[in-house]
Amino acid sequence: MTPELVRGDLTAGLLDAYLAGSEVAVDTETMGLNTLRDRLCLVQLCSRDMRASIVQIPLETSDARQPPDGRAPRLKRLLEEPKVLKVFHFARFDVAALRHWLGIEVTPLYCTRTASKLVRTYSDRHGLKDNLLELLDVELDKAARHTDWSSPELSPEQIRYAISDVTLLLPLMDRLETMLRREGRRELAQECFRVIPTLATLDRLGFVEPFEH
């Protein structure tokens, strides 16, 4: 699959295409794992009909001195659209990065990692790679995981890695949804998904597990 690469924001055509669906898979790549320090570099999207795109986020787009509506307005419009479900793996991290760097309040959302923890209780391995191998019989190549995502020119290997996860999230969600319904835990999962934006805000503000003793 060859994704469409755009810089700074979605095109009007891509926005319309994604808004025409009821769900979109979302992934991000950052300079590291510290949300406040390591800036957002890529936002990857894939629709149910396998329309995939990579939005490169240049430094000037994520400048906090710009009002949130001016940083990536079309991407913001999509990710805040209440009629389109946004599907992530480990949404807590991605939601925090999107809020901090682009001022986007993602809603509604689905997290396949959270779903996995609620229904794959026979395993302690809930990473995307493990889920895909077990549930979809797909083995991910993580060779390009640690790389400079801020580069203006992405290599073929970077593009392949960046888009590989997001193209599989909707099929993975389908499998997990079947398991959640079977075990009677779908409503519990929905409640958990609604809490994720609050957890992401706590992360951005520096609170470490405030519910623990």
Q: Explain this structure to me?
A:
This protein has a six-stranded mixed β-sheet, sandwiched between helices. It has helices at residues 12-19, 73-79, 91-102, 112-119, 128-136, 156-166, 169-183, 186-204; strands spanning 4-7, 23-30, 40-47, 52-56, 85-88, 109-111. The protein is of the alpha/beta class. Helix 1 (12-19) runs parallel beside helix 2 (73-79) and helix 5 packs across helix 7. The termini are far apart. The protein has one domain: Ribonuclease H-like superfamily/Ribonuclease H (Nucleotidyltransferase, domain 5, 2-Layer Sandwich), CATH 3.30.420.10. The protein contains eight helices and six strands, in the order E-H-E-E-E-H-E-H-E-H-H-H-H-H. The model has no long low-confidence stretch (mean pLDDT 95).
Keywords:
single chain, 213 residues, alpha/beta, Nucleotidyltransferase, domain 5, six-stranded mixed beta sheet, 42% helix
Describe the strand arrangement of the main beta sheet, using strand numbers.
1-4-3-2-5-6
Which overall shape is indicated by the principal axes computed on the Cα atoms? Answer: globular
Strand content: 15-25%
The secondary-structure class comes to alpha/beta
CATH superfamily: Ribonuclease H-like superfamily/Ribonuclease H
What top-tier CATH class fits best? Alpha Beta
> What is the fold named in CATH at topology level?
Nucleotidyltransferase, domain 5
Helix-strand string: EHEEEHEHEHHHHH
Instruction: Output mean pLDDT.
Output: 95
Rg over alpha carbons: 16 Å
User: How far is the N terminus from the C terminus?
Assistant: 48 Å
CATH architecture: 2-Layer Sandwich
Total count of strands: 6
Task: Please give the share of residues in helix.
Answer: 40-55%
Whole-number count of domains: 1
What characterizes the major β-sheet?
A: 6 strands, mixed
Number of helices: 8
Poorly predicted parts: none
